[in-house]
Amino acid sequence: MIGAITAGLFSGAGAPASTTSYESIATITGSGTPSSITFSSIPSTYKHLQVRLIARDSRAVTLEAYLIQFNGDTAANYSDHMLYGDGASAAAYSNVSASSMSAYAIPSANASASVYGAGIIDILDYANTSKYKTIRTSTGVDNNGSGVISIGSGNWRSTSAVTSITIAAQVGNWQANSSFALYGIKG
């Protein structure tokens, strides 16, 4: 039975996407310290989008959330929820009718020096104009022996195709060498 399950995971319909299913669209790596980055003029030729990030922000705390908006929409059209833990405890939070979606946890100014967090944002069916847009997030940081991992999802209550993505530090600015890469996932 295990052999049949394993074979099903790696072949045929429903198999994980291969590395050739991803196409690089754009990368933003900063030497400055902007409060947000934006991917714009996103083509509608893919099934899904994925943002991969390695980042740190400047707020005087150890860990921080980061914010996600589509198409410059700053109205209360977003919802999200998040689960996170540090090995000793777990917590959850949610937002409804918010002006952005959020994900957690990126290291900030009080984290160990030179520690950056890593995250993935999947944007599902981003070009479909018949439904609201959904994201799923996973983010984590190892602060030299202590750390946090989180998973979450969010919703943008718009049927518009996603043509731009803004990712902002919740408070403060992205630090030098923070990097954001946008990929298109073929259908």
Summarize the structure.
The chain has one helix at residues 2-10; strands at residues 22-29, 36-39, 48-55, 63-70, 78-85, 90-98, 101-107, 117-124, 133-142, 147-156, 165-169, 179-185. Strand 9 and strand 10 form a beta hairpin.
Can you put this structure into words, describing what you see?
5% of the residues lie in helices and 49% in strands. The protein is mainly β and 187 residues long. The chain has a single domain, classed as Jelly Rolls (Sandwich). The strands form two sheets. Strands 1-12-3-8-9-10-5-6 form an eight-stranded antiparallel β-sheet, with no helix packed on it. Strands 2-11-4-7 form a four-stranded antiparallel β-sheet, with no helix packed on it. The longest helix has 9 residues, at 2-10. Mean pLDDT is 89; it is low at 1-15.
Q: What's the helix and strand layout?
A:
Layout: H1 2-10, E1 22-29, E2 36-39, E3 48-55, E4 63-70, E5 78-85, E6 90-98, E7 101-107, E8 117-124, E9 133-142, E10 147-156, E11 165-169, E12 179-185
Antiparallel strand pairs: 1-12, 2-11, 3-8, 3-12, 4-7, 4-11, 5-6, 5-10, 8-9, 9-10
Give the CATH class: Mainly Beta
> Largest sheet, described in full?
8 strands, antiparallel
CATH architectural category: Sandwich
Order of helices and strands: HEEEEEEEEEEEE
Major β-sheet strand ordering:
1-12-3-8-9-10-5-6
SS strand fraction: over 45%
Q: Helix proportion of residues, in percent?
A: under 10%
Number of helical regions: 1
N→C terminal distance? 30 Å
Radius of gyration over C-alpha positions, nearest whole angstrom: 17 Å
Structural class: mainly beta
